[in-house]
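Consider the following assembly input.
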Amino acid sequence: MSNTLVLGCMWGDEAKAKIVDYLAEKADFVVRFQGGSNAGHTIVTEGKKYVFHTIPSGIMFPQTLCLIGAGVLIDPAAVLEEIKALEKQGINLKDRLLIDFRAGLVLPLHKELDAEQEGRLGDARIGTTKRGIGPAYSDYTARTGLRLHDLQFEGYTAERLQALYRHHHKKITKEQLQEEVVSLSKAFRSLKKYVGDVELSLYEAHRDGSNILFEGAQGALLDNIYGNYPFVTSSRVMTDAVGTGTGFSARYLDKVIGVYKAYCTRVGEGPFVTEIKDELAETIRKTGNEYGATTGRPRRIGWFDTVAASYSARLNKLDCLAITCLDVLSGLPELKLCVAHKQKGRRQENYDFHSFEANEVSPVYETFSGWEEDISGCRSLAKLPLAARRYLVALEDYLETKVEIVSVGKDRKQTFTINRKRSMK
Ligand code: IMO
Ligand code: MG
């Protein structure tokens, strides 16, 4: 029995789903606790690609039950579409999916507001996924939002919806309101069989000795408070968010695995100290297929930033690291590791600069030799070239946390766990 969290620790897209999928075979439950359809979680197995947005990645294993906690936003139409697409791919969801009745809703109005807000911000835009995430979480917090179980009452839904449009100074005719209520009620009838009490289910699962795996979305540096505000998402993306997002206290967690890509990527706006601006970025983007799984946007590429990474390791009290996409670095003559930041001539080792001053912050690099070998077939540390092992050791040293899992390719099989009895060096 164990309660494990797999958490993205940079700006999202760390290939978390791959690690969740790797561990999910032994899990009885896989649980999402924050975010919504802004997430794009990709799994590749036997040449087939699956992308998840709101449904936990554990749904790939027929014996695994998938829970969506109250901290996750539900866009009813998008979730139904995802369910349909998965069923089409032969994945059975019957009796395997449970969504907390307390989950907040993303409504068409929220997507409209998201796009409008981004437009109004102009050059100061966040670069959101335009999935309505910010406005929906804002409404939840402001108590003007709707929750999943509200949809069982048509009259109540109509009343709340009308108040919401008023709150946002948006006009809606009686007919349009009625149309939206009918469509939400219809969606709820389809989703009803999946709606229940995730808090209670997790409590019982734990009591019965189940293995529970929590799946983070986004990344800790997109956390609403501890990320690069305002270039963040609107949910809490930290170890502690497991408790608030599911009702199952983070104190129950036995293990927190921090997922980091072997280099950095970021989509959307915001500070990125180690961003690579020359053609090398395009080379890495192409090799790593670094395009958003949700929006298709090209991801910004950068060297691994140990200042940012050790901050997120500290925030989340990680037990170990999972390093992904190591294979993408193969063939590069040299690798750079950012070991400190420099601002106004001063060396900084803490990640606390103001986003407004981000342009003044430059990276201090340590250079490592690269490796020529194709490592995508390696299934143990010993099989990795010495240069790759040295790079991993450096990450461990700077983050003061051991690497436990390494991923060397997109396929489920291209992952291995480090046998700690052997030395890293
Ligand atoms: P996964 O789970 C990468 C980014 C957006 C934007 C900011 C706010 O696939 O790692 P939002 O739509 O949440 O209001 O956008 O957060 N962002 C992500 N970046 N991966 C994600 O999810 C992301 N979800 C949101 O690009 O910068
Ligand atoms: Mg993603």
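The longest strand covers residues 334-343. Ask yourself how this observation constrains the way the partners meet.
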